[in-house]
Each structure stands twice: as structure tokens, then as C-alpha cells.
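Why Family 10 glycosylhydrolase? Reviewers of the renewal asked for a concrete example.
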Amino acid sequence: MSLIETRGVWLTTTDSKVLRSKQRIASAMDFLAEAGFNVVFPVVWNKGVTLYPSQTMQRNFGVEIDPNFVGRNPLAEVVSEARRVGLKVIPWFEYGFVSSYNLNGGMLLQKKPEWAARDRSGKLLKKNGFEWLNAFDLQVQEFLLNLVLEVVNNYDVDGIQGDDRLPAFPCEGGYDEATIARYHQQFDQHPPQNPQDRQWLQWRADTLTNFLARLYQEVKAVNPNLLVSMSPNIYDWGFKEYLQDSPTWLNRGLVDMIHPQIYRRDFLSYQSIVNRLVTEQFTDATLSKLAPGILMKLGSYFISPEYLAQAIECNRKRGINGEVFFFYEGLRENNDALAKVLQNGPYAKSASFPTLSDLSRGGADNSKPLSIWQKAESFFRTIF
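Here is what the prediction returned.
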């Protein structure tokens, strides 16, 4: 029986040069295919600009594409080069409802100040340096939806991906006049001053979930085979801090694949969260949709080869057939050391990317001997 697994990696513009030329993209796709990967998640929306020529952006803001890529179309290049080597492509809308990072709203809110999210003091909503668009505003929702729809309508992609910013919204937000009025109309009172009041959290999370339902329906209307993939914060921290009600997304069938960001820097922490997700959040019917996000590199941090192999082994033992790594450059450090660990160990045997029916029927039976782990162990002993 052929192996079916999600073996993915995010392609970023931050700390990465992979998208800077078509040649680099072609080389990266060759490299990933050789290392055993089968899907890439290239960023297409960050820092308030797109990485493809966008009529939605041109119409609203007069900026068609990220100024660094004028004259090119990185998304089209990734699709073309990935197809050449048999990789799936799921564009990643990294910034979601974020407007800017430490730029007081940046170009988006300079041109459309009415789109700004507000905290309870009426100030522009800012959390961890990120300034936010109002995710409850219907025009803002329409704008994000149009970005997604122009990608699925114009490119040969396999789906789309949201993350910890789509659909997401800091719990400190929702105090703009229109949202307050809507809440007041429904409950005959103002929203609580405590942003983490449980009922206020749930009401706003439900609003985001309903947006996701619309996004899911509209993507499927373009092509029912397109995958809607999400990489949220871990529940329930993600619910309390960013209104991401991922168990409800799963229960309502609004995601085809989900990649919770289990970005822990030691294996025991990772294992603990996987165990909790499998026992508390996922059922036999939804486990096939799970392929955790694993932190491979961030700043000066690199995952150790031991932790890398242990995390994949942990996933398979818990019935999780896949993972997605943040991010590509981690594979290239130290003379491609981590890519070699995968290529000679857990990814030594090629695997097909799951189809929609694999993801929705409880997954494939990937029972197999664990001799690949022994291979991985002996291999990384020789290179580290």
C-alpha cells in the first residue's frame, strides 16, 4: 500500500532569499522534491502587500504587488516550478487581518483609516507589535475574501491557507463603534470592559468562525477539490488570545487540513501538546486532518536532528500522518543537515500527498515498520 502523508514546508520572505528569483525558486523545488517533501506553502500576503499582481490591491490601494517583486510574479513561478517536480502548492495568507508591524497601521490604514481595529480605549489595536484591521468590519472581510478568491481563480493551486492571523483577532479588540452597536443590539448592553469575559470572547470568536464558513463556501464554489488549510495557534490559548475557536472549525467541517503551531523548543513539550490535541480536540473522524506545525528555525534557534526525528515518530505513533515545517531555510543550514536527516530517515520512502477523500474519511492506514527511525538515528550520528 502506498504511503500517504503531508510533508510540507513554509516559504517565507523573512530571513529567506528563496523567492527572490525564479532560479532560486526552481532550485528550492528540486531540493524539496529530492528531500521527500510533497507540498509547499508559499507566502502570498504579508506586510500589507501581495506576492502576485493583485487587482484587489490595485483597486483599493493603488499597489499591485510587493515593490520588491515588480515585473515578476513569485506565486506563478512557485506554481510552475513546483508542478514540474510534482509538489502541491497551497498559498499562505500570512498577514491575514494584520495591517502592519510597528508602522502605526502602515499604507493600508493610511488609505483606509475606517478599517482600523480599536481597543477598549479607542486606540488602534496593537498586539506584539502588530497593528490590526477590524476583522468584524464587512468591508475588511470582503477585501480579504477577494484576495483569496483572486488566487484560487487565477492560479493552478491546490488550496489556500490561513494561520494565526486568519481568521484571528486579538481579544483586546472589538471596541469600534460598529461592533459595539451590533453587540448592544443583540444583548441590550455594551460589551464588557474585560476583553477576556467568556461570553464576549465567544461572541467575537463566533463572528470569525462565520467568516471562515463563508470563505470555505466561496473557495469550494470555485473548485470543490481545493483544500482549505489552517495553521492556528494552539487551542485554547489561541481562543483566549486571538479568538480562534479551532474545535468548532473542525466540528462544523470548515477546514480540510489543520496545522496547529506547536512551536516548542524541546521534544517533551511538543509531545505533551500532541497528546493533548489527540485526546481532547480531535476525534477519529477529524484526526486525518491534523498535520502539526513544527518549528525548525527561528532567529538563532534550530531544531536538533534528534528532536526532529522524535517529533515525526511521535506523530506517526499517535496516528498523525504528516507535519509542516517552519520554515524552508532551516533545511538548508549546516550543509542541508536536517534535510538529509529526513531524506535518509522518515522521508526515505516517498509519500503521496493526501487527497480530499483521504482527509475526510479518517485518513489512510499508514501502518509500517519503524526501521526508518533506526536508519535516521544512525544517519544523524554520522553527520553530527
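Residues 39 and 157 are 11 Å apart (CA to CA). This is the kind of structural detail the renewal will allow us to pursue systematically.
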